[in-house]
Amino acid sequence: MAYSISATTKGGRNGRAILENGGLALAMALQKEFGGNGEGHNPEQLFALGWSACFGQAILALAKKHDLDGQDARVTVALSMDKDEISFGFKAEIKVTIPGADKAKVQALVEDAHKICPYSRATRNNVPVTLTVV
C-alpha cells in the first residue's frame, strides 16, 4: 500500500472531525441551506478542496507531455448537491486556467488529468462532471 490515512468524526455533520495523526481537526456544521448554522466545515467543502488539489497534481504530472507549464494552473472544483430519488447526489464542474496558455492544449491536458486523478476516477460514472477551460 502506497498511502493510508484514517479520520474519525463524532457527532456527524454537527460534530468534530479529526485525522488519526492529529494533524487536522475541524468543527463540522450542517450547511445553512440544510437548516444548520453553517458555523463550521462540511464534508462537501472538504471534498471540493481535496479534489481541486488532487486534480492540480494530475495537471502538474501531465503538463510537460502537453508542452505546458502546469505550475501556473488554477483548478477550481465547483460541487453542488441536489436531491434525487434516493437521497442527495453530487454534480461537479472542474474549471482550469493556465494564464497565457493555448486553450486547446489546456483542454487536452484537462481531459488527460481527468483520466488519472484519483478523485475523478472514484466518481466516474457516478457524479456528472463538466470540464471547463477558462
TrEMBL record:
SUPFAM superfamilies, per the entry: OsmC-like
Cited InterPro entries: KH_dom-like_a/b, OHR, OsmC/Ohr_fam, OsmC/Ohrsf
Highest taxon listed in the record's lineage: Bacteria
GO biological process, one term: response to oxidative stress
UniProt family annotation: Belongs to the OsmC/Ohr family.
PANTHER family recorded: ORGANIC HYDROPEROXIDE RESISTANCE PROTEIN-LIKE
Protein name (Swiss-Prot/TrEMBL): Ohr subfamily peroxiredoxin
Source organism (scientific name): Pseudorhodoplanes sinuspersici
Source organism phylogeny: Bacteria, Pseudomonadati, Pseudomonadota, Alphaproteobacteria, Hyphomicrobiales
